[in-house]
Amino acid sequence: MRIGIFPNLVKRESAAIVKELIRICEARGLEYYLPAYVSESCQPAYQEIPAEHFRPRMTIYDTIDIAMVLGGDGTILKMANKFASADVPICGINLGSLGFLYEVETRNLEERLDDILAGKYFLEERMMLHADLCYEDGMIQSLPDALNDIVIGHGNVGKLIRVDLSINGHFIQQYPGDGLIVSTATGSTGYTFSSGGPIAAPSVPCIMVTPICPHLLLKVPLVLRDDEQISVTSAHSRNSVRVSVDGVMDQELMGNMTLEIRKADHVLKLIRFNQNYFYSNLFTKMMGND
């Protein structure tokens, strides 16, 4: 088995965990590889790794069977597209504060890697969202797929915007306020929850639409089937509107554009060990006790 190790270089504690992962891999005769950018870190632990264990960012996904990702939820969100497209399952090692996408803690790292080698795990598939920006002249700009959410928000803080929502080609409602969140079940524990939306189990095949600080009596979140087609326009907004994909990518939604959102073709695969992990961790993490 070929193991990919993806540390969050901003978290300095990652270096010690990477060193431990390498020790475990070498003790079990496993191939291991890290993305080449890790070798540029000034931390001594990364400088000690032999050059043959580094692979370029664009080719490492074809070199590994599973990925060990160290960090918080944001670390996975930034790389979810690559892992999903390459069909590489992720085993997340939590170094963050919440870590809804993670199940493995650093204290049981060796045990969990042995479970993987013994086949004592299952793969959980997480739905993603695909969005296209469609221009009046017919040009289409595809945005990166979203694991959590696509946020249509204001470009100027404190300025009310108006966005029009259509579902399957039928106009539904104009929302004056701070914008809309279109999310997956995975994203239901994030911005959607903070904006008054429901929490959905990761296995629920749905798309959620949640207004952000809406004006009037429009604070009603929608839960749609995963095969629904969503369209958002901003032609009636006097203030600038922007689109954010998983908080990573930011793009202006001009009045002559239509944002088309649907279920993505790829899914993200997460390595899991406990069938009940989501419910057992939900309120612990939400209360900030973990």
What does this structure look like?
- This protein is an alpha+beta fold and 290 residues long.
- The protein is 19% helix and 37% strand.
- It has helices at 14-27, 44-47, 73-86, 109-117, 191-194, 277-286, and strands spanning 2-7, 31-35, 54-55, 66-71, 90-94, 122-135, 140-142, 149-154, 161-167, 170-177, 179-183, 206-212, 222-225, 230-233, 241-245, 249-252, 257-272.
- The strands form 3 sheets. The chain has a 6-stranded antiparallel sheet with strand order 7-6-17-14-9-10. The chain has a 6-stranded antiparallel sheet with strand order 13-12-11-8-15-16, with no helix packed on it. A 5-stranded parallel sheet has the order 3-2-1-4-5, sandwiched between helices.
- A hairpin with a 2-residue loop joins strand 9 (161-167) and strand 10.
- It is elongated, with a radius of gyration of 20 Å.
- The model has no long low-confidence stretch (mean pLDDT 92).
pLDDT average, as an integer? 92
Give the termini separation: 32 Å
* Helix content estimate: 10-25%
Report strand %: 35-45%
The global form is elongated
Function: Involved in the regulation of the intracellular balance of NAD and NADP, and is a key enzyme in the biosynthesis of NADP. Catalyzes specifically the phosphorylation on 2'-hydroxyl of the adenosine moiety of NAD to yield NADP.
Family: Belongs to the NAD kinase family.
Active site: 73
Keywords: ATP-binding, Cytoplasm, Kinase, NAD, NADP, Nucleotide-binding, Transferase
